[in-house]
Amino acid sequence: MSKKKKSHLKPIVCPYCGRTANLRPTAYVYGDDNLDPEGYLYVCSGYPGHCDAYVGAHRKSMRPKGTLADAALRNKRIKAHRALDAIWKQGYMTRHGAYIWLQNRLNVRERDMHIGMFSDYLCGETIRECTEFMEMHQELEKGGKGIGTRTQITA
């Protein structure tokens, strides 16, 4: 970890096995063909073999981007991000507006509105809310009932 400043964070404890997590280069998990060779991850000290929990780290601060997650939760968080991204990428809202809309739908505080911190339950609710939103708007567009062109909702 040359020239990277070690943070003075309290130890990160794995919610799955209770071991501590260590800061490692992404190659530790993804090998040489990873998409972010300059990146870092917090990896459970039980990895590999006993535990597969890890989370990305912010480049400048080296703070974790969320909470440690196993493969199932990482996959669910990816799906939740894709579901939310579809709303703003298809022009129904701005990106910021989509996050505020979801925050209100989930009744989550602003400081907790990070998919990287979401539980399995909140990821599932995100996917459900976003899917319902998209289906409703696509039905309205198909039937011509009120939405002829997409207008961005800003927050």
What are the key terms here?
3-stranded antiparallel β-sheet, 155 residues, elongated, mainly alpha
Which SSEs are present, and which pair or pack?
Blueprint: E1 21-25, H1 27-30, E2 40-44, E3 54-56, H2 71-89, H3 95-106, H4 120-143
Helix pairs in contact: 2-3, 2-4
Spatial strand sequence of the major β-sheet: 1-2-3
- Give me the secondary-structure category: mainly alpha
Rounded to the nearest angstrom, the radius of gyration is 19 Å
Separate helix tally: 4
Task: Write the H/E string, N to C.
Answer: EHEEHHH
Give the N-terminus to C-terminus distance in angstroms: 40 Å
Beta strand %: 5-15%
- Overall number of strands: 3
Kindly report the average pLDDT value: 87
Low-confidence blocks of residues: 146-155
Helix content: 25-40%
Please give the largest β-sheet: 3 strands, antiparallel
Shape: elongated
